[in-house]
């Protein structure tokens, strides 16, 4: 049996959860959140799969809780700008 590949949003989510470098965690959280939101839009357009939507919602809430516990505000502007820039670059590639 071939190994299952992990969804890109889930990989970013896990990276954010287990990031130990305090200087990187805000950006990891934002990157994961953007990826989750993009995936949610994608499945909405394709006809949402309830289990995947629930997993995306749970992951997004977990990231929000993590950010709150670490005192990372929802408008961490520099992290959001950097993540958006990476996101746009990835889409253009």
Number of H/I helices: 4
Overall structural class, as computed from helix and strand content, comes to mainly alpha
The overall pLDDT, averaged over residues, is 83
The SSE order reads: HHHH
- Helix percent band: over 70%
Q: What is the topological layout?
A:
Layout: H1 8-18, H2 25-46, H3 50-69, H4 77-92
Helix pairs in contact: 1-2, 2-3, 2-4
In words, what does this structure look like?
This protein is mostly helical and 93 residues long. It has helices at residues 8-18, 25-46, 50-69, 77-92. α1 runs antiparallel to α2 and α2 (25-46) packs antiparallel against α3 (50-69). The longest helix has 22 residues, at 25-46. The model has no long low-confidence stretch (mean pLDDT 83).
How is this structure best summarized?
With 93 residues, the chain is mainly α.
Primary descriptors:
93 residues, mainly alpha, single chain
């Amino acid at each position: 049996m071939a190994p299952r590949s992990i969804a890109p949003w889930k990989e970013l989510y896990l990276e954010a959860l287990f990031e130990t470098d305090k200087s990187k965690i805000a950006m990891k959280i934002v990157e994961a959140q953007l990826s989750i939101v993009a995936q949610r839009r994608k499945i909405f357009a394709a006809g949402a799969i309830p289990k995947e939507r629930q997993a995306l919602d749970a992951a997004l809430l977990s990231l929000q809780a993590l950010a709150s516990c670490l005192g990372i505000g929802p408008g961490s502007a520099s992290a959001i700008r950097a993540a958006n820039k990476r996101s746009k670059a990835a889409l253009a590639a």
